[in-house]
Write a structure and sequence with these properties.
By secondary structure, the protein is of the alpha/beta class. It has 19 helices and twelve strands. Helices cover 55% and strands 12% of the residues. It is elongated.
Length: 627
């Protein structure tokens, strides 16, 4: 048997180790905010935000697309956020091409106005025509007003050149698509102004044409002559009998635009390069709309779109004309902090324009403050987080109880050892002391080992497994119904510098048997000698000990997965940045080519004028006398 002093020392060391295991993670966690890197002072520029509306069922697809439009309008009206359309952010090449066309049109308008002021009306006519064509090739949902102004100035230049018939045709075409277009008396004489009034009245009186717009394969926002008209399919009436400009857009697809007359027009959307990535992110959110994976997926979407915030609207459709249930959150892409959160109902159809204003304003009006230690506020169901903490506390309590039992039986074994030494070695009483002491020693060893393992695992689950995170703020007052999900802290492994947070891995295999009561070993055989009695319990007592390594392996694999995801996000950001640089270089090259072409055209025109002057016959004195 071991001496009583050694056993008491082992018991004291075991108690000290258990205390360190239990208190150490909590102490380290409490000091964690002191090691956080201070946040940089935000710049004066507004944060960029994109809006994504995700239908949680098939009946909400159309209403989700309509709600996304009104959310974009709410962001634009706030004045504190820079709106980036998701359809444009995911189609960088198409966006760059449309922006180049808009810049070309703006420059042509500037040149045309300068030529008109210098009374070079022929050049002005050419430049205004170029501007109109450039605006038409761009995004008319944004630039329809510029397109109309270019055509108005084109008609003004035709009037100045004496081309009254062509000017009247242009005026009639402009008023057919925009009866409220402005014509200034500074550019049009009284006769032409009278013609404008006459054609305006005729256009308003003849607005009886119907038009239906359909899109495939998904519902899309529909703009007709620069005005939002709803989500496809859209049936319109009261239009003029003329060519109208139809623009449709949907996230993950390229913008489609065409002219359409009376009847039905169908447009097929072309998937953009990021359509598959958007679809994968959306499917992850639909599977767990109240889980931590939702915020992780939204952060990936923000990185893909190149914005700092994401305004997400999770829409669940009602029956018939019943309002849709919406969960809205505005999320910081950096660390997942919920800057805004609200749950409520929104009316459908035309009533959505005004019925959703209060709900959307609560999401973009102000930012939710962070928790102590600059920790992010989150709003999602914890899943098994609280259960893991509860299991951790139970394991810690079980470990302490086992250690206390081990210490008690160790002290009893020491007492039996002293009695055995004092009793005659050949007496039955000494033999009884020996057998009882061996049993107590075995139980003490098992209790100490299993107690250490149980307390260690309990500390891991209770503290390192996701405890001590942030709590949620109460839902916005705009919510019509209480929040169905409880705000829970993000996993402690997700620091603000990382691009995503990870769920806790499942408990390592083989650890369950540690929390189960262990059977008492059978009494040792009477034929054994005292010497082996000290060593035989060792293999049995140390059997549960190998349980922790799988936990470390799982933790290591989780860290590797996190690093791999971080690397993938980094590569994705670099790829997006590279594409942007290429598009910017291509745009600059196109501008340079256009400028060079313009100069060549001017030079060729100048040469032609000189050649025409040379070809004109000169009138000599004989011709004058004959005349």
């Amino acid at each position: 048997m071991r001496p009583s002093s050694n056993r008491a020392m082992h018991a004291a060391l075991s108690g000290w180790l258990v205390g360190m295991l239990a208190v150490g993670p909590a102490a380290a966690q409490s000091s964690l905010p002191l090691r956080l890197t201070p946040r940089a002072v935000p710049s004066a520029a507004p944060s960029s935000v994109t809006v994504v509306a995700i239908p949680l069922d098939a009946t909400a697809r159309t209403e989700a697309a309509r709600l996304a439009y009104w959310a974009e309008q709410s962001v634009a009206r706030s004045g504190r956020l820079e709106l980036v359309r998701l359809s444009e952010a995911l189609d960088a090449q198409g966006r760059a091409e449309r922006e180049a066309k808009a810049a070309e049109g703006a420059q042509a308008m500037k040149d045309g106005q300068a030529a008109y002021d210098e009374l070079d009306t022929q050049k002005a006519l050419e430049r205004f025509d170029v501007a109109a064509k450039a605006f038409e090739a761009g995004d008319l949902s944004r630039g329809f007003g510029d397109f109309v102004r270019a055509r108005v100035m084109k008609a003004a230049s035709q009037v100045a050149n004496g081309e009254n018939a062509a000017a009247q045709l242009e005026i009639r075409a402009v008023l057919a698509v925009d009866p409220r277009a402005q014509f200034s008396s500074n550019f049009f004489p009284p006769d032409e102004m009278a013609f404008v009034d006459k054609e305006r009245k005729a256009a308003l009186a003849g607005s009886t044409v119907a038009l239906t717009v359909r899109t495939e394969p998904v519902p899309a926002q529909v703009y007709v002559d620069g005005q939002f008209r709803g989500v496809s399919p859209v049936s319109l009436s009261g239009l003029t009998a003329a060519d109208h400009f139809v623009t449709v857009m949907a996230p993950g697809y390229e913008l489609e635009q065409r002219r359409a007359r009376e009847g039905e027009t169908a447009l097929t959307l072309t998937p953009s390069a990021s359509q598959r990535a958007l679809q994968a992110i959306t499917e992850r959110i639909v599977r767990k709309p109240d889980g931590a994976e939702r915020d992780v997926a939204l952060r990936e979407l923000g990185a893909l779109a190149g914005v700092s915030q994401v305004l997400a609207l999770l829409v669940q459709g009602g029956t018939g004309t019943a309002p849709v249930q919406v969960t809205g959150l505005r999320l910081d892409v950096t660390d997942g902090h919920n800057l805004g959160y609200a749950v409520g109902s929104v009316p459908v159809g035309e009533a959505m324009a005004t019925g959703s204003d209060t709900f959307l304003s609560s999401l973009v009006g102000a930012d939710t403050a962070r928790l102590a230690g600059n920790k992010p506020v989150t709003h999602f169901s914890s899943g098994g987080g609280s259960n893991r903490k509860t299991m951790g506390y139970v394991l810690m309590a079980t470990g302490v109880a086992l250690l206390a039992g081990g210490i008690y039986f160790g002290m009893e074994a020491s007492s039996k050892e002293d009695d055995f030494r004092r009793a005659p070695q050949t007496s039955p009483r000494a033999k009884d002391f020996k057998d009882t002491g061996k049993t107590y020693a075995l139980v003490a060893d098992i209790g100490l080992v299993t107690g250490l393992v149980s307390a260690g695992l309990g500390s891991y689950f209770a503290f390192a497994g996701g405890g001590g995170g942030s709590s949620s703020s109460s839902p916005s007052k705009a919510s019509a119904t209480p929040s169905r999900s409880r705000a829970t802290p993000p996993p402690s492994k997700a620091a603000p510098a990382k691009s995503e947070s990870l769920d806790m891995p499942p408990p390592p295999k083989g650890t369950k048997q540690v929390s189960e009561p262990l059977p008492m070993p059978p009494p040792p055989s009477k034929t054994t000698t005292p010497a082996p009695a000290k060593t035989t319990p060792a293999p049995q007592a140390t059997e549960p000990a190998p349980a922790p390594p799988p936990a470390r392996d799982t933790k290591r694999s989780r860290d590797e997965d996190a690093a791999q995801r971080e690397e993938e996000l980094k590569k994705r950001r670099e790829e997006v940045e590279r594409q942007r640089r290429e598009l910017e270089e291509r745009r600059k090259q196109e501008e340079a080519d256009a400028e060079a072409k313009r100069k060549r055209d001017e030079e060729e025109k100048r040469k032609r004028d000189e050649e025409e002057k040379k070809k004109r016959p000169s009138i000599d004195e004989d011709d004058l006398r004959n005349y």
